[in-house]
Amino acid sequence: MGFRAEGWSKRVREARGGEEPGRGTCENCGEPFERARAGRKRRYCSRSCRRKAQRRRQADPATAYAFPTGLSVAQGLQEAVTVLLEGEHAQVELADLMARVRRVAEEVECYTAAAVSDARAREVGWDEVGQAAFVAPVTARARWRRSEVARLFQRRHAQQAATDGGSAPAVAVAMRQGVHEVALAQARTRSLAGALSFLLRHSGLAIKEAAEGSGLSPSYVSRIVAGERVPAWSSVEVLVRVLGGDPLDLYALWEAAQGLARAPRPALAEAVERLGAALRGAYLAAGCPSYERVSALTDGVVDASIVEGALLGHVVPCWETTSALLTALQARPGDVRGLWDDTNYAFLVCLQTPLQDGPTPLVDLPPPRPPFSPGPSGA
Fold it and tell me: Distance between CA atoms of 76 and 334, rounded to whole angstroms?
């Protein structure tokens, strides 16, 4: 009996690589260590050896970290949110909106997994991951272990390939961004052309007369008004003056059509004037509907008196109200958000900066009135 037991123990030691039960050999340093007889078998003698082995595996190209980084997934998430925002501005059908919401939710899930994987690659422990994600460490380990994350990104890759006709995800994203940029540039050019077209109609001048007054060729003016060309600002300025308008009202539209970056933050008076001019430019591009009509297009969210005050530069509404106003005018709120931010920032600076001498910055701001009165209530 003793002989048979001794033989069995020998076979167990051979199966364990010559180790005695309850003892192990560290896979990193090769030193023996005590191992618990129950539970998961330890492979390293200490946490330090385990981390050294992990760093060595990560340095090996065959086992390198291959998941998408949080930054690359965040870019996809930003694109999905942009598509959702465009759907809201365009007032697409509910089913289309829900499809866009699902895409955002999927990208959020993928970003979370990528962020956790990035943290794990930096040797962040599951306790810290669980604390950051407000879940238990065992839940975090089960939810974001390598096999689960790999399965999640394989599914994401397959969905992108099916959507993009089998092209690589990076190429597909670049193509979608390129198409989006082209469509965005065309929409901004149409806004500028719409404002110029309204001025031309209201002036009563023919294209030939407007061209002679501005020193431009009739064919070029025709293309500008049709949205086929985006001229230099000097040409726009001269043409708007000939048509009886205020060039400042169209500067934000021209700047957006050119895709130019905005200048550093201006002072409060200048910021208010720029924002009011941008709103009046959008108002011109929409054909100067009545204030009541604009209010109705916002479903009553923006009162007619607020519409008038914002266009006259007497009030600066909150961003939600400004966005609703621009949407009612079929303008892109994103094109004006920077100007609103400048105004809000300048106002906060004035509140926080002690005034020395001179009047308060909110007194008697005289922005120009809209160049044309609004049409009848039914317009």
Answer: 19
How far is it, in rounded angstroms, from Cα 117 to Cα 330? Answer: 42
Judge whether 214 and 221 are in contact, CB under 8 Å. Answer: yes
Contact 377, 296 (CB under 8 A): no
Cα–Cα distance between 231 and 223 in angstroms, integer? 10
Q: Which residue has the higher pLDDT, 3 or 269?
A: 269
CA angle, 229 then 231 then 236, to 5° = 125
- The pTM of the full predicted model, rounded to 2 decimals, is 0.44
Mean pLDDT of 54-68: 54
**CB neighbour list of residue 211: distance below 8 Å, 6 or more residues apart:** 217, 218, 220, 221
* Inter-residue contact 32 to 24 (CB < 8 Å): yes
* β 23-25/32-34 pair status: antiparallel
Per-residue model confidence (pLDDT) at position 319: 86
Q: Three-state SS for 25?
A: strand
Answer CATH for 268-352 from 2.60.220, 3.60.10, 1.10.287, 1.10.260: 1.10.260
Q: Nearest Cα to 337, choosing from 258, 267, 282?
A: 282
Phi-psi region of 149 (alpha: psi -120 to 50; beta: other; left: phi over 0): alpha
- Scan for tokens 């519409």, then name that residue: 307
227 — alpha (psi -120 to 50), left (phi > 0) or beta? left
Distance from the first to the final alpha carbon of the chain:
105
State the fold for domain 181-258: 434 Repressor (Amino-terminal Domain) (1.10.260)
The secondary structure element, H or E, covering residue 29 is none
